[in-house]
């Protein structure tokens, strides 16, 4: 999504929803949030949305990083 300050790369809250649809595993969600923030992304606790705002020249790298983050979170839930 194009914004004034860059492009917002987001999962729309879907990644963690797939891992814990009822959002009942608070330990998983807390650990996932720590991993997300540690990877350089933002985490909205209200919506479980993972996102990062980037310049156009960084979109490809951010999408690659985001894909790796999603894989890491999937292993966390296993």
Q: What quaternary form is this?
A: single chain
Annotation, overall tally of beta strands: 4
Rounded Rg = 12 Å
Q: Which word captures the global form?
A: globular
Q: Helix segment count?
A: 3
Strand order of the largest sheet: 1-2-4-3
Largest sheet: 4 strands, antiparallel
Domain DUF1828: 3-72
Pfam families: DUF1828
Protein name: DUF1828 domain-containing protein
What does it look like?
Pfam families: DUF1828. Residues 3-72 form the DUF1828 domain. This is DUF1828 domain-containing protein. The N and C termini lie far apart (31 Å). This protein has three helices and four strands. Strand 1 (2-3) and strand 2 form a beta hairpin. It has helices at 14-19, 26-38, 59-77, and strands at 2-3, 6-10, 42-44, 49-54. With 78 residues, it is α+β, with helices and mostly antiparallel strands. Helix 2 (26-38) packs antiparallel against helix 3. The protein has one domain (2-77). A four-stranded antiparallel β-sheet has the order 1-2-4-3.
What's the quick description here?
This is DUF1828 domain-containing protein. The chain has 78 residues and is of the alpha+beta class.
What keywords describe this structure?
four-stranded antiparallel sheet, 78 residues, 21% strand, 4 strands
């Amino acid at each position: 999504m194009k914004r004034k300050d860059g492009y917002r790369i987001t999962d729309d809250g879907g990644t963690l929803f797939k891992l814990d649809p009822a959002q009942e595993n608070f330990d998983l969600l807390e650990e996932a949030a720590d991993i997300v923030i540690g990877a350089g992304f933002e985490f909205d606790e209200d919506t479980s949305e993972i996102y990062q705002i980037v310049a156009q020249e960084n979109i490809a790298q951010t999408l690659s990083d985001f894909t790796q983050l999603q894989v890491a979170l999937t292993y966390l839930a296993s």
